[in-house]
Amino acid sequence: MRQSNIGWLFLAPATLILFVVGFIPFIYILYVGFFDWNTNALDPTLRWAGLQNYRNLVFDTTFLSSLARTLVFAFIVVISELLLGYVLARALMADRLWGRQFFRTIHTLPIVVAPIAVGATWRLLCVPGFGIVPYYLKLWFGIDYNISTNAYHAFGTAIIMDLWHWTPFVTLSLMAGLTALPKEPLEQAQIDGGNKLQIFWYVIVPMLKPVLLTTVFIRLMDALRSVDEIWMLTKGGPAEATRFIGLHIWINVFPKTDYGYGAAMSLLTLYVTIVLSWLLFVAMTGRKGGAQ
Amino acid sequence: MNNFAKAVGVGFVSLGLWSSTALAQDSWWKTAAQPYQGATIRGISESTPASKYVEQVLGPKFTEETGIKVEFEATSWDQMYDKAIKDMEANTGIYDFVYIEQDIVYTYLARNFLVDITKSLADNAKIASPDFKPENFTTFLNYFKDPKSGNVMGVPMEAFIKPYLYRKDLFEDPAIQKAYKDATGADLKPATTHEEYTQIAKFFTEYGADKELWGTTVQASSSHPAAFYEFFESVAPTFGVYNWGIDGTTFAATEANGGQMNSAAAKKALNYWVDLLKYAPPESTSSTWDEVAGTFAAGRAAQGLVYGENAAWIATDESKSTVVGKVGVALPPVEAGVMEAAGSGKGYIGYYDGGAFGIPHSSKNKDASLLFLQYIGQASVQTDWALAGSRIVMNSTYDDPKIVEQDQKMNGYYTLMRDDGKLFAGAPPYPFHSQVLQVVAPFIYKAIVGEIKPDDALDQAATAAEAELVKLGYRK
């Protein structure tokens, strides 16, 4: 009992910080979401709107399409990074790979680049007329690649940029997980005659599940709130082809100063993220909640 | 010998007068800045040639003379607004002076973001420099006065028009002139109508097919407000559609309600502008003002509307521009009757842009910032600043021999600005500038990429703009 009280004492600073930077802003956003509030309106004061902001969201096609676009983007990048990350992790763990350390270092470098710099760099590579990507795609394959007119090109480039930036994170996480796996079950599975696919699916994946779950959670949440990289690459365009939900909320909250509506959007997006994470947790663990 | 002695004598007297004047000036700044010695003032601005001059020259010189340190952040247009507005909204006081673009000043005034410079100097005469005289500025200063009190709220630091630049070397090449005559039956000269402009654009795109040369630049980013600005502030006025097509008294945007945003003239303008993309280099749909200047400087376009802040370096800086000595300057092409309307003050033919530095209410060093703003508002610093940034905010600057010399290299850009600047106008005085822009711009983007037709884009944009104005409480 005495030990438990000391534990609370140690937790107090972190709890206080979380309360101030997490809980209070959350309550404030919840509060603002019930008001019509625009500091650039003729009447810039908060006016009670009840659930009107949430009602409007249901009919706001720009918001709904931004949300749908973000979910598609997140689904594609998380799955792709998981698969690619696993393949790379196994490749970089192979004893036969010459210069393994060098490749590991090179592969890890994108993680340390700031997202804003990643976006700017990819923009320079891809901007039509000047970038080397459209130049060589035209020269070698005759492709008129243009991220400022073709929605598919812009969306595809956003995905490739995200894969380049974050696959190394998945690779590192899985390498750490794979390295920590006990050898005995694998050897036992080999003795029992399991082929590579069976060993992977029935032995490695279950043992790797905690690492996979953590990695997928982190990447999913990151992908759902992508803003800075996309902003630098396409600014949400062409037209609204890459206007992901984070960008859409930012535009409503800052340049448009529509705080009430922006708060409602943020809360709904948070709710979607929580639901998705819970579904993922259930799917991967077969349980509906609670601690391991 | 006598003449020589006289000359030497006059020289010494002049030097003495100059030195005493300089010393007197030095002593005034030093004396006035005494209470603020060691203070640091922080400013933020868009990274433009004029801002870079403040960062690299005026800031350090001010520090040297006063002991007040100037930290200056020259960043992108978006970042500048984002940071400055958040700072002023939250009252954090990170910035002591901020860039106020001509089009945003009405929003800042409506939200009481700015310090009243006239009043502050009247209240504290000790820091009112004798060399800072608002009457020295051009009428551009009027954009930064509070309409209610007439007091100065910002010190102009750049001002320029958006002229029609063309490649003089190409337009004056006899072989090209003949080819143009053969192809079109007309003489090759800077366009005065939209039909001529399109014809020239088409001709040069065909002529330059294997030369990395296109007929025109277009500031038509498919996801950046630059496209909105190019259309509503540079192109639509040349078709007689002013103030973004919004009625300034009823705040109607649709033609049905008395607005002009989706009028026949506006639709003709958007169709013309979008059509120009056929004759523009591929980067045009990614181009903001910076990229348009870059495209023209790289020699990739025969003509274009280019913000004048870039005119000087494009025309004179060989380290950045491949078209030095080849740049011609003219007024933008217009529809019939528009030039006359502009001449009589009932309309305008393009954008008179620029900005000022103002002091946010949240600043923690208001007096030191006032000193700095007056320092950059002296007549003596204007010439070199204009040479570096092709911006002129004072009448006296136009007559300076250095400016006259640069004007010749720029084929008369400054002369055009002085003589015909009155034909151009700044953004309409709307406090809802950013809000309407964000609502309307997506429809312009969709027209650029061909997602919707220009006519539909303007119909939808006008309806959306009106709805936003109702929501903001301006339109009943």
TrEMBL record, chain A:
Residues 67-280 form the ABC transmembrane type-1 domain. It is a multi-pass membrane protein. Its main location: membrane. Keywords: Membrane, Transmembrane, Transmembrane helix, Transport. GO terms for cellular component: plasma membrane. InterPro entries: MetI-like, MetI-like_sf, Sugar_ABC_transporter. GO terms for biological process: transmembrane transport. Pfam families: BPD_transp_1. Signal peptide: none annotated. The chain crosses the membrane at residues 7-31, 67-89, 109-132, 152-178, 199-221, 259-283. The keyword Nucleotide-binding does not apply. SUPFAM superfamilies: MetI-like. It is found in: Cell membrane. Belongs to the binding-protein-dependent transport system permease family. This is Sugar ABC transporter permease. It comes from Rhizobium glycinendophyticum.
Automatic annotation (TrEMBL), chain B:
Pfam families: SBP_bac_1. It comes from Rhizobium glycinendophyticum. Keywords: Periplasm, Signal. This is Extracellular solute-binding protein. InterPro entries: Bact_solute-bd_prot1, SBP. Residues 1-24 form the signal peptide. It is found in: Periplasm. Its main location: periplasm. The keyword Heme does not apply. The keyword Nucleotidyltransferase does not apply. GO terms for cellular component: periplasmic space. Belongs to the bacterial solute-binding protein 1 family.
